């Protein structure tokens, strides 16, 4: 008779039982999926900060007549696969439903890749759940360049999901040198590129750098490695990749690249066309790059604007990550972790290059070479490191926790393991506080904003063109009406960026000139309508207007200007 509660470590390591059974793998995936989805819904209420941006664009992709006067929705599509897949769904269900479905599916895919990597790093099901909880906790404390994974639904979330699955297969390929595993890794990395070209390409580049470094080290140390024979003193399989020939590794790398390239084409071709097919001269393109990198997205792309807290957070996280890896390091564990550490090193190189390119102590326009700096920084060189560091740190902390657990509590039971997993799930939800929908709105103001948008949806024609406030968030999501310009909704092609900037300045100029007599009269609004086609204004600060609003919702006022209803 076996004892009622066997030691957890024994159960988790027993072949065909809790640690290795297919059912247990499904249960482990469900736990990590639950952690990710719960934290997403708790931390990021609907709609998430980027969900109106992406889902309304997807709706317009599938239904070009919807809000057809909105110039952002008519701009170039950088995420073709996301829009092609999600767009039709937005015509069947409301945006909120699509967002929830998208979060569940994409985070479940992320959990699949997460558990696959955890198993390859030597973690059991509980270790992967602990790592997932740690990852969510790290995300709540900050980041380096504003990159996040657990939140709303947009193209990068399924991209990261496919990428984690691809990285897991690549970890296998690194140690076994099996060509089919390189092919599988390439297929999933290609899918990551297709869903979000920037996210997927950086991870592919990181894998390429890692493989190149491996080949170089193989050439440099070939004579030493040819005489090296590592005795198999553990149950782990020998590192077959170490004994593979250089030509074999080179062929495997080519297999990876080709499989990734073919699968990535549906998303890669439209993205390449967006970057390469501009008909603008060099100067307007440079101007668009400057607007995008050093103004609109400086918080993601200009390292000189990153707050000190971001640098401190990253330094502490990197220290914790390396300390945890050193703590758990043994010969067998080191072989499992080497490729992931190479990948982290590659991301660090890319990030350091981005810092070197983007750092400036005086206004960027005063630098003689700002044009090429902006052209490179617009490809988000920091997001790869900003995503991979917390992922690696989470697995490292979980591995250290597992080692401490086995050192100090050798008779931990399955029941206590389950209790710890539930505590980890609860902690992941509790420690991540819910955020407001948008930093510019109080909860009351946001509720009134939604009521005002619903009024626009119910009481204006489908071809209405609305001028919202600078802090406008989700107007198309709630009102289903076109916006003249929205600060949040900046296109990604050069021509679209310049038009977006022109419209912002046009509204600013109209506001300045109209307010010279300290009010906005009918003549001012008629001029605005004639110049822009705007039919309605929704505002809480702009004014005073001499004409009465057609409706008010708390602090929000809706005006129908000349030509409106």
UniProtKB/TrEMBL annotation:
Keywords: Membrane, Transmembrane, Transmembrane helix. The chain crosses the membrane at residues 21-42, 80-101, 121-140, 182-209, 249-269, 310-328, 340-360, 380-400, 412-432. It comes from the Bacteria. This is DUF6798 domain-containing protein. It holds the Pfam family DUF6798. Residues 447-507 form the DUF6798 domain. It comes from Fuerstiella marisgermanici.
């Amino acid at each position: 008779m076996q004892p009622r509660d066997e030691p957890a470590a024994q159960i988790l390591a027993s072949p065909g039982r809790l640690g290795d059974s297919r059912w247990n793998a499904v249960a482990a995936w469900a736990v990590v999926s639950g952690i990710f989805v719960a934290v997403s819904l708790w931390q990021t209420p609907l709609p998430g900060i980027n969900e109106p941006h992406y889902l309304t664009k997807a709706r317009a992709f599938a239904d070009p007549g919807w809000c057809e006067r909105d110039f952002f929705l008519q701009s170039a599509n950088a995420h073709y696969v996301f829009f092609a897949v999600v767009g039709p769904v937005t015509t069947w269900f409301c945006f909120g439903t699509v967002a929830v479905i998208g979060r569940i599916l994409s985070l479940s895919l992320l959990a699949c890749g997460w558990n696959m990597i955890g198993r390859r790093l030597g973690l059991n099901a509980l270790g992967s759940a602990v790592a997932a909880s740690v990852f969510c906790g790290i995300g709540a404390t900050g980041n380096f360049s504003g990159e996040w994974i657990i939140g709303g639904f947009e193209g990068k979330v399924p991209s990261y999901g496919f990428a984690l699955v691809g990285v897991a297969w690549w970890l296998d390929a690194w140690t076994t040198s099996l060509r089919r595993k390189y092919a599988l890794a390439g297929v999933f990395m290609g899918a990551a590129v297709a869903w979000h070209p920037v996210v997927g390409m950086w991870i592919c580049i990181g894998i390429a750098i890692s493989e190149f470094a491996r080949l170089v080290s193989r050439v440099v140390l070939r004579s030493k490695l040819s005489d090296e024979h590592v005795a198999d003193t553990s149950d782990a399989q020998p590192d077959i990749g170490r004994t593979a020939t250089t030509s074999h590794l080179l062929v495997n790398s080519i297999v990876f690249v080709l499989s990734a390239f073919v699968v990535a084409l549906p998303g890669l071709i439209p993205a390449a066309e967006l970057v390469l097919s501009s008909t603008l001269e060099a100067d307007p393109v440079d101007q668009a790059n400057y607007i995008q990198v050093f103004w609109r997205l400086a918080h993601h792309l200009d390292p000189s604007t990153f707050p000190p807290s971001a640098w401190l957070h990253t330094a502490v996280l990197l220290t914790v990550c390396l300390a945890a890896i050193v703590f758990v390091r043994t010969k067998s564990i080191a072989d499992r972790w080497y490729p992931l550490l190479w990948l982290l090193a590659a991301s660090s190189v890319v990030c350091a290059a981005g810092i070197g390119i983007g750092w400036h102590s005086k206004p960027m326009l005063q630098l003689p070479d700002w044009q090429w700096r902006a052209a490179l920084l617009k490809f988000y060189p920091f997001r790869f490191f900003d995503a991979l560091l917390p992922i690696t740190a989470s697995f490292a902390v979980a591995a250290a926790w597992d080692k401490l657990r086995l050192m100090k509590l050798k008779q931990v039971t399955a029941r206590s393991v389950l209790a710890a997993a539930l505590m980890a799930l609860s902690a992941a939800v509790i420690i991540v506080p819910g955020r407001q929908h948008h930093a510019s709105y109080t909860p009351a103001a946001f509720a009134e904003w939604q009521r005002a948008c619903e009024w626009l949806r119910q009481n204006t024609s489908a071809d209405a063109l609305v001028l919202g406030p600078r802090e406008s968030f989700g107007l198309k999501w709630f009102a289903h009406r076109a916006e003249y310009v929205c600060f949040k909704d900046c296109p990604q092609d050069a021509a679209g960026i310049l038009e977006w900037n022109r419209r912002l300045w046009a509204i600013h100029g109209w506001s300045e000139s109209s307010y010279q007599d300290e009010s906005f009269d009918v003549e001012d609004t008629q001029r605005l309508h004639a110049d822009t086609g705007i039919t309605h204004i929704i505002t809480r600060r702009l004014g005073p207007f001499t004409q009465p609003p057609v409706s008010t919702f708390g602090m929000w006022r809706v005006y129908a200007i000349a030509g409106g209803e």
